[in-house]
Write a structure and sequence with these properties.
The protein is mainly α. Helix content is 49%, strand content 3%. The strands form two sheets. It has a two-stranded parallel sheet with strand order 1-2. Strands 3-4 form a two-stranded parallel ribbon. Helix 5 (154-170) crosses helix 6 and helix 11 packs across helix 12 (284-294). The two termini are 25 Å apart.
Length: 333
């Protein structure tokens, strides 16, 4: 989440390390302070997770996109990948919920990479020529006129996973502290990927000793199409998370009525002529995964679709409003 960081200041900036150190509460190390010219914004405890993450994403552009921009417009991940990563930095996010969200993003990225041109799958399409300009000061934005690029999320998702990988190498809390130092160093400037990565590697020299060099990051994450090995391995871990397994169990419940029942024993039927089953209440992320997995089924009966429609009020549901209602119900209890 975004937490108040002290006095207002001209423009939008991060808390300085000195300001952060004035707070004796070590638990706040994972918070991010946002200060504006006339306001300070904090994330209310009861703001819905989905709405909160969207607010965090757009507010993150105050730093990555506005205060710091990409020198080469082909490196869109500097804006969108960073903002997507910062969505998850709020205190109410549980680790298991984070695994579920990561799996949803992995599925979206994997599907996109399977159905797109390889040239559109790299974070640094100009590679070694990134940042070059002509004699008149202009630069070529590669793939800018490709209509397929407008609908792709590679820079959001692959950029997010790159930052997640790097955070795992140094520790998330230290990574957030580094973010603060980086923003203070480059505030008001245009940067290339190498500016961020070189400062990260110099701040954490153990990374290079483990073989994680600038050229290695380029080769594995930025200059190649497809999915890095680390991401394939992590997706297997996310797929086995508890919340994901709960959703898979719900999929079995929804598909069971369409299967041939053994032993000839009938079960009590509900309104739509199907066996009556108690279904688990799902968060918006869990419901999204449930619907994605059900779409992979070869066949779903009309009565199953109708029951699904009714059980989750799909005809009227807005994910944000539903999450907000759940929070209000908890307060009343």
């Amino acid at each position: 989440g975004l937490a108040s960081g002290g006095r207002a200041n001209k423009g939008t900036r991060w808390c300085t390390p000195e300001e952060d150190d004035d707070d004796d509460d070590d638990d706040d190390d994972g918070y991010i302070g946002l200060l504006g010219a006339c306001w300070t914004w904090t994330r209310p405890a009861r703001t819905s997770p989905l709405r909160g993450s969207r607010l965090c994403h757009e507010l993150a552009h105050s730093w990555f996109g506005l205060a710091i921009g990409a020198l080469d417009w082909t490196e869109e991940w500097i804006s969108e990948g960073f903002a997507t990563y910062l969505e998850d930095l709020h205190p109410v996010e549980m680790e298991e919920q984070g695994h579920l969200k990561a799996l949803l993003r992995w599925r979206r990225l994997s599907d996109e990479l399977q159905h797109s041109q390889e040239d559109l799958q790299v974070l640094r399409p100009n590679m070694e020529r990134t940042g070059e300009v002509s004699e008149c000061g202009s630069s070529l934005v590669k793939h800018a006129l490709n209509p397929d690029k407008s609908f792709m999320q590679v820079h959001y998702l692959k950029g997010y996973f790159l930052l997640t990988f790097l955070a795992g190498e140094v520790g998330e809390r230290e990574f957030v502290r580094f973010f603060r130092r980086f923003v203070m160093e480059y505030h008001g400037r245009l940067i290339l990927s190498q500016d961020f990565l070189q400062m990260l590697l110099s701040t954490f020299p153990d990374m290079a000793r483990r073989g994680l060099t600038l050229s290695a990051i380029y080769a594995d994450w930025m200059d190649q199409p497809g999915i890095p090995t680390w991401l394939c391995e992590r997706s297997a871990v996310w797929s086995q998370a508890r919340l994901v397994e709960e959703v898979k169990a719900e999929v079995v419940k929804w598909t069971l009525p369409g299967q041939r029942r053994q032993g000839g024993r009938s079960r009590k039927r509900g309104r739509w002529g199907q066996p009556k089953v108690n279904h688990r209440e799902l968060t918006s992320d869990s419901l999204m995964l449930l619907l994605e997995l059900l779409l992979q089924e070869e066949r779903l009966s009309g009565s199953t679709l109708q029951s699904l429609h009714t059980a989750y009020r799909l005809h009227t549901q807005d994910a944000e409003e539903e999450e907000e209602e759940e929070s209000e119900d908890e307060e009343e209890m």
